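User: Can you help me understand a structure? I only have the sequence.
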Amino acid sequence: MSVERDPAGAGAGEVSAVVRARTILASCHEVWCDPGHAGTARAVGMLDVGGVPYLVLSAALPWLTEGAELTGVATADDLGVLDFHAWLGRPRMLVRDRAAMQVFNEHRGCLREPPGPLDDVVVVPFGLLGARVVAPLGDALAVEVAPDAIEAVEPDWLLVHGSRVAAHLEVAHARELSELATRCGWPGAAVCIRRLSATGVALDVLTADGVTRLEMPFDPPIRQTSDLWPRLTAAVALRPRAG
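Assistant: Let's start by predicting it. Here is the structure, written out as tokens:
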């Protein structure tokens, strides 16, 4: 597998490797960790606490020492795979970290193997030393991303929920999507949502002559679900009509 640097500037509706990596860290609740000679590779829980990734374990382990290094793999179905090299912060008991405790209570059901008694749960913040991300659907290239670049961006909430939102729009709002295509110059066309993120949308317009791709950016990015449809219709209004 070859490795490329993250290309500068994703196009309309496209997702940069940096944003993809940040969103995987923010939304993945299980990570495969390998501490090397210090311990045995295993799957552990993971939570995002104020933008900082935390490991979540049912008990303290010998390799959980501040400054220790490990490699890990985080996977999110619609986002891809993030391979990373990281250093560990100071391990602490979950019940003594108020911020971590709040996030844990909100996402405990998301952990595939919920830890045992709360008094035994250990959380460990970690920082990235290196990372690369592979998009889903078997893309051939792993893109190397800089840790400081990942820390500087916000996760894209629509990358996590976009497939569900897109499916809802295509089923419940097919007529409205067809009307958008009509406004772009393709009357009676069906529309599929090819890609949806907070920074843009890609629509496939299906006509008798084939498929036409419409790429429309959202600038600034969408911050909440209620903004999606107004911003989509506004983006369509700005496009020149076909023909």
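Now, to help you interpret it: DSSP finds six helices and twelve strands in the chain. Residues 183 and 237 are 8 Å apart (CA to CA). Let me know which part you'd like to focus on.
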